[in-house]
Amino acid sequence: MADSGYKSISRIDDAKKKTHGWYVRVYFKGKMHSKFFSDARFGDKDQGLQEAIKYRDELERKLGKPRSERTVVQVSPRNRSGVIGVRRRRKSSGKKGRPGGYEVYEVTWSPGPGKMKRTSVSIEKYGEEEAFRRACEIRRQKEEEIYGKPLPPINGSDSSEEEQAQEQPQEQEA
User: Fold this and answer.
1) Region for 52 from its dihedrals, namely left if φ exceeds 0, alpha if ψ lies in -120 to 50, beta otherwise
2) Which uninterrupted H or E stretch holds 33?
């Protein structure tokens, strides 16, 4: 399959199988949705591509997947905080006379392809619940800047991040 230059759309040209067209694959919340757009059915290569783009955009809207040419971070079984891009960790630093480090909630986001940014909120300074709430708020703001809206909660519920932040976060093993 050849890269089309459009996210989630690949070009297939297999002369042996007489298969020529565009293959749309949208992966979201653990499920793959796919459809093939044949050049013959849509008249030509360009018209097939236009139909494939239209289908992809409508499908992503229907699924609630943010429309972006960048990768959308999704659920990971390793996520312990319950919020994408927020994790509890020990920073190993001797700053301010703290040998052995200190606990933080670290917020990560990708401002552009191949770029990663991070910041942290001190649990010592704000306490467990307030540090988690602040970290979730930072992450939500970054999602709005990048995707135009916050991502849906990872547990698939309609609860907001503030409601999730009120729940006691799980402890991370050292």
Assistant:
1) alpha
2) strand 31-38
Q: What are the sequence ranges of the domains in the chain?
A: 2-63, 86-166
96 — pLDDT class (breaks 50, 70, 90): low
pLDDT at 114 over 70: yes
List of residues 6+ apart from 18 with CB closer than 8 A? none
- Give the per-residue pLDDT at 131: 97
| Residue 20 CB partners (closer than 8 Å, separation 6+) | 12, 13, 14, 38, 39, 40, 45
Q: What is the distance between the alpha carbons of residues 18 and 15, in angstroms, rounded to a whole number?
A: 5
How much is the pTM? 0.51
* Separation between Cα atoms, residue 103 and residue 131, nearest integer Å: 10
Given a contact cutoff of 8 angstroms between Cβ atoms, the answer to whether 110 and 55 are in contact is no
N- to C-terminal Cα separation, the chain: 44
Q: Which residues of 37-52 are buried (b: 16+ CB within 10 A; e: fewer)?
A: bebeebeeeeebbebb
Location of structure tokens 């943010």: 66
State the residue for tokens 């960048």.
70
Question: What is the chain's length?
Answer: 174
